[in-house]
Write a structure and sequence with these properties.
The chain has four helices and seven strands; from the N terminus they run H-H-E-H-H-E-E-E-E-E-E. It has about 160 residues and is of the alpha+beta class. The protein has one domain. The chain has a three-stranded antiparallel beta sheet. A hairpin with a 4-residue loop joins strand 4 and strand 5. Helix 1 runs antiparallel to helix 4 and helix 2 packs across helix 4. The radius of gyration is 17 Å and the shape is globular.
Length: about 160
């Protein structure tokens, strides 16, 4: 068993959770978008917000997101690539921002479950980290007194 590697991965997960919690809402929205899509052009990121421009997005990526990531985790989390192949689709992607190789960094985070809520103009978006054993086909949802409760069954392994 690689104890040193295990400790480094657990420390990185804790740093990633701390990093995400330290970001403002717009910066978290950019990060979640890139995490979900793996990459995006600046126009896609700009369109996440009303009254936003390329400079605002670039500032958030370089100074806020990557700045905090460097401070907390010791490395940036987003990277700009002029040309890169998407390993999932095989497509060559030009001039895009990429989420940097952290796909499994928070799949198991102990007690620090990652949940974020974005109150948009015409919708509410809930993003949550879930174990891979969750069955999403039959959610039991209840809403009472402004609180949403979602119960998901686990797959039988």
């Amino acid at each position: 068993m690689d104890v040193i590697g295990l400790v480094e991965r657990e420390t990185d997960k804790e740093g990633l959770a701390q990093f995400i919690q330290s970001l403002d809402e717009k910066s978290r929205a950019i990060l979640w978008y890139l995490w979900w899509h793996r990459h995006a052009e600046i126009a896609e990121l700009r369109n996440l917000f009303e009254k936003s421009d390329d400079f605002d997005v670039l500032y958030r990526i370089k100074e806020v997101i990557n700045g905090k990531s460097q401070e907390i985790r010791g490395k940036p989390i987003l990277s700009f690539e002029q040309s890169k192949v998407d390993n999932l689709t095989g497509e060559k992607i030009l001039f895009s921002w990429w989420f940097m190789g952290e796909e499994d960094a928070v799949t198991s985070n102990g007690d620090k479950t990652l949940v974020d809520v974005f109150d948009e103009k015409d919708s509410v978006i809930i993003i949550a980290q879930l174990p891979t054993s969750v069955n999403l086909t039959e959610p039991d949802m209840q809403f009472r007194n402004g609180i949403l409760k979602v119960k998901l069954k686990k797959n039988n392994l």
